[in-house]
Amino acid sequence: MSGKPQSPENQARQLIVAYQQYQAEAESLVRELGLIQMTAEGLDKAISAIGALSKAAEGQEMLVPIGSGSFAYAKLSSADRVVVNVGGGVSIEKPAEEAMEMLRARRSAISESSKKINEALAKIEQEMARIQAALERLERELQKQGGSEGFVQ
C-alpha cells in the first residue's frame, strides 16, 4: 500500500464496512442483554419464592407452577430446604437461606455482566455515531466535487 491518501469513495467504503461490523456487534450485545434480563428475572422469582416459602407452614397446601400458566396443588413438606441448580445440569438440596444467598450472588454477577455489556454497547454506539458523522462529511465533500449518489446509512 502506498503513502498516497485514499480517495473519499474508498474512505467511505471502509467506514461503511466498519459501521456494519459495529452494528452487528451491537445487535449481538442487545440479544445477550435480553438473555441476561430473562436470567435475572428468573433469579428474582426464585429468590422471592424462597422468601415466600420461608413464611409458609409445613403441610400448607399451595399451587405450584408446572409451566404454560398451569399449576398443580401440592403440600409443603419442608419450608427450610430447597433444591437449586448448581450448574452443568446438577441440582442439589440446600438450606433455604443458603440457597437464597447463592441466588443473590448469581443475581449480583448477572447485574455486573449487564452493566459491562451496557458500557460496551454505549462505546459501540458512540463509535457508530462518529462513523456516521465522518460519512456525512465525506458525502458533502463528494457532492462538492460533483459526483455522489449518497451513501450515508
How would you describe this structure to a colleague?
The chain has 153 residues and is α+β, with helices and mostly antiparallel strands. The protein has a single domain, classed as Helix Hairpins, CATH 1.10.287.370. The protein is 64% helix and 17% strand. The protein contains two helices and four strands; from the N terminus they run H-E-E-E-E-H. The chain has a two-stranded antiparallel ribbon with strand order 1-2. Strands 3-4 form a two-stranded antiparallel ribbon. A hairpin with a 2-residue loop joins strand 1 and strand 2 (70-75). The radius of gyration is 27 Å and the shape is rod-shaped. The two termini are 28 Å apart. Molecular chaperone capable of stabilizing a range of proteins. Seems to fulfill an ATP-independent, HSP70-like function in archaeal de novo protein folding. Heterohexamer of two alpha and four beta subunits. Keywords: Chaperone, Cytoplasm.
Compact summary:
It contains 2 helices and 4 strands, in the order αββββα. With 153 residues, the protein is α+β, with helices and mostly antiparallel strands. Strand 1 and strand 2 form a beta hairpin.
